[in-house]
């Protein structure tokens, strides 16, 4: 044990026993600045001391409400004036906690709307007294609405100054003289702008050692005022665009004087901003800034350029934000050391309330479709995937809805090591919570005028709600805390602080309630261990605001940023509290100061406050420089989809996801027979596919030889290379699909392209005039040539309706004809992927398929005839397949892509996702009906009154009010569900693996890790990425085009999973090097540049194709060149087994049609684990015969059947 460890443990024992008295007088001089060390502190050395904390007041296992008699705080924040309600301009006010007079005890400043502000000094133990009058001139700011407060050391003298955001007049900046006496110096210091300040953030922008200020402005909707002025002119105020007031970035000159640096910093200040949250989101050592913005202005995600300027990356790095963004907070929710974001909206959690507030979706439809980032009306929990790239996991985590929400906080309230999510709730007027009320207001305004509207709104009253605590036993799996941990009672809590108010080490809650008494909650939870950290330094930023504090406990890390602006209009102390669960000490505490210097302290005992002064001679932070698994580049092909929004939703107004963006694939083969691999990319409707020829070095250039092989108006889906006519040249089958045309159109005719010595010759394939998707080839009937299966992907404009698929028999000359290989039982369903492989090891090619509203299943081939489906999964919305021997046991396993767990759909076998369909209006149109499962086995309407009413006008007539619809049963709206003509179900949406135990007997689904459930999965490839002998996975992710009010499913980046003997480890972006934030589709592994290492090619919908080149060049590999018999020259259906010197066996499956809509014919590769060599190669050909090789020369071997 080190000397510091011995000292820390001894200190803890003495403090616990009460044997160490106060050894300081409460202050210490630090290079001219006064750095206060709390009374009772014990020094380890001149830079590190610990402080024993007060004894906890109770152990009730919940939060306990303290009233005015217990706290001494008498503060009732009133907003009774009808103007506040009618103009929706003053429903919130904040508060701030901090040490105003330097005695080490927490004080409170409370902002008032109609009530005067109050400053309460703490006496310890949750007792306070009012010192407003004696602490400075006009702290009360009588006659004005104070919305925001922040204790912050503006002038770098070591005490807490006070910034107040005041509506309708100048903001105030009260400078503290060190004893708790304040004087307003806003004018002298340049911060007296008159804006509707809602919140204040302090951080070091440049960084130059001082604190700059970001002032959020939320100017409220003035339509009531505009109405009187313009009514006589007949102006419709709903068509007036109201510009918000601007935010201000104040730059500190180092002395505590400020200038407006908004424009110079690249900040777009026009925003209905509620809160700004500074943190180093991309881990480059500079503070970035997230700004939550209400109404039509989207949230801003300003990434620092490192020179005091910022660039907004919200459109690419967030991609989805709340519509009415309210409060936000930052913190590490999953223990990966990265800073995540939690941002609130106002989505109700209950079924009825959600229907009452659903609104008229067509009022917002265009914005929902075109906004970028997309704005959605629900909370967002943005998980940092690395370098600041975020994924909203609110659906997966269960935190989308929390009522009408204000302040947010990520804080470990029970010190379990997993932070809770706190939400303050309630609203001043009930009318905003109900569409019927909004319609009444419109009618009253038109018929009776403004005063009648004001009276109606006042009569309706407020909409209080319970605050919410989300807690989790495992990261990212939140639930509402049992009994809300004592936070019971409906209130209108807006500004909120969570801090150690009574000095006992745990986190208490104080909320500024509108039209009610201050809410004070003492923490009496059963808590784990923690560490509290207080920083100080010789700088104008005395308390190290903006520092990153990280506790290392064994392999676990717990981290947060010193942020003092937390909660809407609110501020907290500059202390950091980290819950460390069952750990009893912090092995290493790392502080990254705002200027990027690193400081480490070791072996710190838990459950103390540690006071850390900045040491001399620190090292500089260097951003992590990982060598990623892949280097990603873009290829010169972009699949550009037609915009089919209007057509699709006109035909099916309640369509869950759009259907024209499911393609397209790619195919790799040596098309020009020059010894290297070429690529064909499927084109969208109106765009020809593209053949890219390899120049021998891996560079792909477009070829004009395949320019006219398919009609431009066809939407190409699957690309299948195979030898159709036995001439040993790769031929091309293109499956055409999507929904740009109506059923039976010749635009759906598939195309066979024969690769002849004279060039490409194309013709349509009879019997394929349907919207197809996957295509695959194998010798089904054992006659030596390649037959095909072509899957029916969908019936255009008939979502869910089973499509027909076809088998195509090959006559050996490339002539394909529809053939019955299923004994008169047509294979129907919305089949999204299909592949051939020998699943039962009986030496013929079986068929594996997956379906939407169906299962993953396989059909056994017996003598050239397929038996019935054999399901291996529950029903799902299965999208894709990958067949590979994952555990190298000689049996082919299945990886299946699905919708994942980060959508609004979370079905189970007991409560499947259910959709009905039928002609509900008697007008000949087929209507879709999504249902919500009840606990009793019945249903409720799944969609809202607006969407449903537009699709089925009789609903508007039968349920004229939203409340009528909200109270209606499924039967009231749609009739008896058993009488509806069509019913579809999906019980499982997990991306999963199914292990083959032999003979085609599969185990239950093995769900992929949670990080592989964040987006729908399309292309999948299995190969050894890291050279350890285990097959790994790449999942191509995202689907952008969903129903507008649901939100896009394009929040993934394409996930790499490394396998370690059956365990799957997801890599983050910086580890994998894969960052595909567009809609990825097909994936193929191939070696374009003859370096012996396979790269991955990824096709993209509405984006450029990607190339992922391996960085594992130190690994050795073996290239295997197969030559099958005539008719199957490329050895489709073969299984290659490579025995290593330790007796282990690596296997590869050769297919014609693998991956989503994609294919590869060419050399096969084995990555050889370090220290291993290969001894024997066995090839089992598709007919069951074998060839072996054991005499290897070099890194390539050819095997001929």
Instruction: Choose one word for the global shape.
Output: globular
Helix content: under 10%
- Main sheet: which strands, in order across? 3-4-43-37-40
The count of domains is 5
Share of residues in strands: 35-45%
Count of β-strands? 87
- Biggest sheet: strands, sense, closure? 5 strands, mixed
Rg from Cα: 33 Å
SS class: mainly beta
Topology:
Elements: H1 3-16, E1 28-30, E2 33-35, E3 41-45, E4 48-51, E5 63-66, H2 68-71, E6 76-77, H3 82-86, E7 95-98, E8 107-110, E9 118-124, E10 127-130, E11 145-152, E12 161-167, E13 172-176, E14 182-184, H4 186-189, E15 197-203, E16 212-217, H5 223-230, E17 248-252, E18 258-260, E19 273-279, E20 288-293, E21 300-304, E22 310-312, H6 314-318, E23 320-322, E24 328-331, E25 340-343, H7 351-356, H8 361-370, E26 374-376, E27 380-384, E28 390-392, H9 394-397, E29 405-411, E30 420-425, H10 435-448, H11 450-460, E31 468-472, E32 478-480, E33 493-499, E34 508-513, E35 516-517, E36 519-523, E37 529-536, E38 548-553, E39 556-561, E40 576-581, E41 585-592, E42 597-605, E43 609-613, E44 619-620, E45 630-639, H12 645-651, E46 666-669, E47 678-681, E48 690-694, E49 700-702, E50 716-722, E51 731-736, E52 751-756, E53 759-764, E54 772-778, E55 787-792, E56 806-810, E57 816-819, E58 830-837, E59 846-854, E60 856-859, E61 861-862, E62 865-866, E63 870-871, E64 876-877, E65 880-884, E66 893-897, E67 913-918, E68 927-933, ...
Parallel strand pairs: 23-26, 37-43, 46-83, 80-87
Antiparallel strand pairs: 1-2, 3-4, 4-43, 5-36, 6-35, 7-8, 8-9, 9-10, 11-12, 12-13, 13-14, 15-16, 16-17, 17-18, 19-20, 20-21, 21-22, 24-25, 25-27, 27-28, 29-30, 30-31, 31-32, 33-34, 34-36, 37-40, 38-39, 38-41, 41-42, 42-44, 45-79, 46-47, 47-48, 48-49, 50-51, 51-52, 52-53, 54-55, 55-56, 56-57, ...
Helix pairs in contact: 10-11
